Amino acid sequence: MDKTGIFYGSSTGTTEKIAEAIAKKLGIPSVDIHNIESNSGDLSAYDFLILGTSSTGIGDLPYFWEDYLDVLKAADLSGKKIALFCCGDSYTYSDSFCGAMRKIYDAIKDRGCMIVEGVSADGYEAGDSDAVIDGKFLGLAIDNDNEEDKTPERMDAWIKLLDR
Asked: Cα–chain-centroid distance for residue 61?
């Protein structure tokens, strides 16, 4: 099994809760969960990175993720497997839902890493989001504001794609 680290930033606490739920489902110890605002962790210590963010405004990254993109760009991501997840509001921001995930994807896609495919956009209100390519989100898209009841099923579908 690859050494897995979760790196997240959370504006309201939702992304933190999702990071912890993912860790629990995958058996990742708390020492390998890193809040990028207070503990950036050592990316090089992991073969598999799970990166999580919230989306703010119209698909924007929170300020702390904007800063953390520089850390990702400076890191050696060659050969690493990376999975993304994002929390947002698909009803209010359907055309930019989880757009912040696209910003992280764009920053790492040409860095020699393997990005795990995302979940199908079917069943979401936000099929036109720029975080969707060929009918799939770039990772796990979560809307706990409006569709919290769908989160466990969506998370389980995404976890099956991780193939750790």
From this structure: 11
